[in-house]
TrEMBL record:
The keyword Magnesium does not apply. Keywords: Oxidoreductase. PANTHER family: SUCCINATE-SEMIALDEHYDE DEHYDROGENASE, MITOCHONDRIAL. This is Aldehyde dehydrogenase, thermostable. Its EC number is 1.2.1.5. Belongs to the aldehyde dehydrogenase family. It is an enzyme of class 1 (oxidoreductase). Residues 12-473 form the Aldehyde dehydrogenase domain. It holds the Pfam family Aldedh. GO terms for molecular function: aldehyde dehydrogenase [NAD(P)+] activity.
Amino acid sequence: MTRHHHYIGGEWVAGCAEAPNVNPSDTSDIVGLYAQADAALARQAIAAAAQASPAWAASTPQQRFDVLDAVGAELLARRQELGELLAREEGKTLPEAIGEVARAGMIFKFFAGEALRTPGDLLPSVRPGVGVEVFRQPVGVVGLITPWNFPIAIPAWKIAPALAYGNCVVFKPADLVPGSAWHLAEILSRTALPKGAFNLVMGPGSEVGQTLVEHPDVRAISFTGSVATGRRIIAAAAARGAKVQCEMGGKNPLVVLDDANLAQAVEVAAQGAYFSTGQRCTASSKLIVTDGVHDRFVDALRARLEGLKIGHALRAGIDIGPVVDARQLAGNLAHLETARAEGAGAIWGGEAVARDTEGYFQLPALVAQTTPEMAVNRQEIFGPVASVLRARDYDHALHLANDTEFGLAAGICTTSLKHATHFRLHAQAGMVMVNLPTAGVDYHVPFGGTKASSYGPREQGRHAAEFYTTVKTAYLQS
């Protein structure tokens, strides 16, 4: 069994324990054993990052570009190999997994370019003979805590800008998917980064994550995960004056109007709600359909779901892989039982199913004839489950779309420019899609939401500089 260590201060360091990385498509397949850290190892990684911080902060844009561009190039060259690993450990289908690795590679290349164009301003003062320079400097040591559903793309979109702007990193990946994180760390270990500029510490959030959040030398925390954990991180980090960036989930509506192209709307809903096993914070888990097309849409989406192939993530022709683990599967099934108990009129699919390997397979579920107050329409399920709400008209549909504590993504299917324009302006979400799945975003533009979905500056694109840098204003008398 292959053993994988932490990466701290430029060295591979054994942990205080080990944990198996289990393939959710075949639980007899152990991807490897991965070291587990405690608070002491987390503090060691923070100390290494703090020691390296002055040198990396003083590095040139060209040095940063060279490191990030090399990482991006290697990820792209190894997308097949690393995609297979990602599909094994997380359960995405192989094409989705390869696409995610490629996305990570492009993110590193994008931020390599951003390292060369860190923004700033040279302005005249209101006082004669005085010049004003406004420029950005790195924050210092940043702690990055990532989820299991995108094991390499989300780490990439946190690590790449952190390094591009001269920060040093302590990275804690999700316990369920350490493999992709470890390989990313291994690639970074062979670059020209100073020892300690990047550190990988694997282990439980109660030990490693909590240490990152509370340690005074960690000047910024970027977290993607649950609302409950995110709110605890926000409170703890804010109490000591650290910067915080949290992405915490969604209950994303997709509105389908009477004038929508029905075939297009069904495909938008199927891809947004069910692909990647619905395990995306941007998944379209609440489908809001107006009266005139409601029944035809539901029938057509049911037919589309019946044609999807569920199975081992590495097999050819599979549309949807397994749920990530037994706990997630049990939670999905419990949500469907709650929907039945609350009076949902119709539920198609959703059963756990057996395949020729022991895994966590579930049929996609469509829950129809629901009401807005039902849990299935209010709680993030994070599985292949979508509910349907009937709306009287566009105004009612918009009200139902905004009737949620979340505000990450929202979508609409319509051929009306009037309604598309109004929805773009009035949907209470950080990202709006028209005739496109809510799950599916570009890497060079901002990512983030409103309300309970997000806190702090946006991720990705040039807007990442808002979190990973501080602004300094300098005055000079000539």
